[in-house]
Amino acid sequence: MHSEMGGEFMFGSEAKKTPESDIVMTSRVRMARNINEYPFPVRMDYDQSIFIINKIKEIIFNKENNSSKDFLYFDLQKLNNIEKLVLVEKHLISKELTDNRRLSAAIISKDEKVSIMINEEDHLRIQAMFPGMQLDEAFDLCNKTDDIISEKVEYAYDENIGYLTSCPTNVGTGIRVSVMLHLPAITMSGYLKGILEACGKIGVTVRGLYGENTEALGNMFQVSNQVTLGQSEEEIVYNIKNITKQITNQEIALRDDLYKQNTFMFEDKIFRSLGIIKNARVLTSEESYKLLSDVRLGIDMGIIKDIDIKTVNELTEVIKPGSLQVLLPNSTGQLERDVGRAEIIRKKLNKTKE
Amino acid sequence: MMCEKCKERIASVHFTQVVNNKKVEMHLCKQCAKEKGHLNFGSTIDVNDFLKGIFGIGGGSPYYNPGHVKMVCEKCGMSYDEFQKVGKFGCSKCYEMYGDGLKPLLKRLHGSIEHHGKTPKLMAETHSISKEIDRLKAQLQQAIEKEEYEKAAEIRDKIKSLE
Predict the structure, then answer these.
(1) In A, residues 106-165, which contact B (CB 8 Å cutoff)?
(2) Which residue from A139, A80, A77, A74 is spatially nearest to A109, judged by alpha carbons?
(3) Within a 10 A sphere around the Cβ of A270, how many other Cβ atoms?
(4) Cβ contacts (< 8 Å) between A206 and chain B: which residues?
C-alpha cells in the first residue's frame, strides 16, 4: 500500500480534550451521489464503470484542483485482501466497495480525512471523517469535496426529490451523518434500552456495532440519521449533534454516579481489567475490546494515570484483524493470532509505565 | 440486558429502526444475532428486508399499484420484480418510470416526499430558473385575478424570455 498514507491514528487523536471528546470517538459525514445519464452501479457495464472512475480521477487529480496533491488513488482490483481489510477497518472504504463483481476505486486524502468511493452502491460515496466531536468540520469538508466534483459533472438530481440514489432509503440529500460513541456507563447501568427507544422515535439509528460488517467493539455505538429526504443537510447535522450532546451528558452523569455510589467496586473493575490486559498471554479481539473499554474509562475518569489515551487509541486500531495480520504476517491460526495480539498489547502497555 | 431470543446470554447487538413511528427493535447476543444474520449489518441486507416488508412481498401491498409489477425500465432494463429483489433502482430513469407510485414508499421511508437540501452546482442555474418561472407564474395569476392586465403582460413576457 502507499507509504504516504497518514498512519496517524484517527481515533480521538487530534481532537481537543473535553469531556465530550472522551466519549465521541469519531465524527463522519458521507454523501451518496450519481452521475446523470449513467446507470447506477447495480446495472453498469464494464465501459461505463471505467468511464465513471476515470471521470472522477480526472476531476480530483486535475491541476486546477488545488488539493489534487493531497489525494491518493486506489484501484480496488489491485489491492490484496489484507490491504482492503485495513482500509475497511479504518472506515476509509466500505465492505461493499471490496465486492469483486464490480470495477471500483477509492480516492483517499493522505491525512485520511476524505475518502471518495467510486462505484459502490452509488457512483460516488463522498466521506469526511474527523476524530472527536467535529461534525461541523466533517460536514464542511464533505460539502466542499462534493462541490468540487459537482462543478465538473452533472449529478442525477430531481427538483422534487433531490439527489437520486440507487437505494430509495438514501434519496433526497443522500447524506448520512454519524458519530461513534464510547458508552460504558450507559451500557453498565442498563439505560441503553431507553436511549435506543428515544432515538428510534426521532429517526435516529443506533447500532451497537461497527456499521460495516466488522467486529463489535467494546461499548462502542454508532449514532446516525435514518431519514435523508425532507430535511436540509444542516438540519440533519444539527439533529445528530443535539442527540449526541444528550447521550454524552447522560454518559458523563452516569459515570460520576456509578463512581460515587460504589467507588471501590468501580476502581476494582477498572484495575482488574488493566491487570488482565497487561499480563494476559492469549487475547481474542472480543476480549481485548472489552478490556480496552474499561481501561479507556479508567483513563477518562482519572483513575488510571500512567497510561496515555493515545496508547489506547493506537491499540484499538492495531488489534483489528486486518491491521494485526500486517503486524503478524506469519501467524496463520486463531490461537497464534490471539497470542500475538496479547503480546503486542502487553509490550505497548508496559512500555508506557517506564 | 439479556438476549431476547435465548434469554441466557447478555445482549450485545442492539438494533433499532423506525418507519413512520413503527419501531423494529432487537436486543440479541452475538450468537443469536449471527444465527439470525444480524451480525452482517451491511446496509444492503438490512435495507432489502426492510423494503420487502414495505412492498409486502407475497401479500400484495396496499401501498403499491400492482400494475407496476409488469413494468420494465426502458433505460436500464430493471424490472419491478428485480427491484423488489435487490431493493435498488437501476438508474435515475427508474425513478421517473414509477413517478407518483413512489410517493407512498418515500413517505414511509422518510416521512416526506420533498427535498429541502442542497442543489448540485451544475444544476443550480436551471434549477433556479425553473423556480423563478414558478414564482412568476404565481404572480401572473395574481395579476390576472386583480385584472391588472398591463402588469400581467409584462410578467408573461418575462416568463417567455426565461423559457
Answers:
(1) 121, 143, 146-147, 150-165
(2) A74
(3) 21
(4) 14, 16
A340-354 pLDDT per residue, tens:
999 999 999 987 544
Cell of B96: 421517473
Kindly report the number of other CB atoms within 10 A of residue A9's CB atom: 19
Q: Which three cell numbers stand for residue A270?
A: 477498572
Note whether A92 and A78 are within 8 A (CB): no
At A240, give phi and psi (nearest 5°): -70, -40
Average pLDDT over residues A325-333: 84
Phi and psi for A118 in degrees, rounded to 5?
A: -115, 130
Summarised one tens digit per residue, pLDDT across range A125-155 is: 999 999 999 999 999 999 999 999 999 999 9
Q: Is the pLDDT at A8 greater than 70, yes or no?
A: no
Residues of chain A contacting residue B12, judged by C-beta atoms under 8 Å apart: 208, 216
How would DSSP label each residue in A125-172? EEEEEEESS-HHHHHHHHHHHHHHHHTTS-B-EETTTEE--SSTTSTB
Q: What is the pLDDT of residues B43-57, one digit of tens each?
A: 333 444 545 544 443
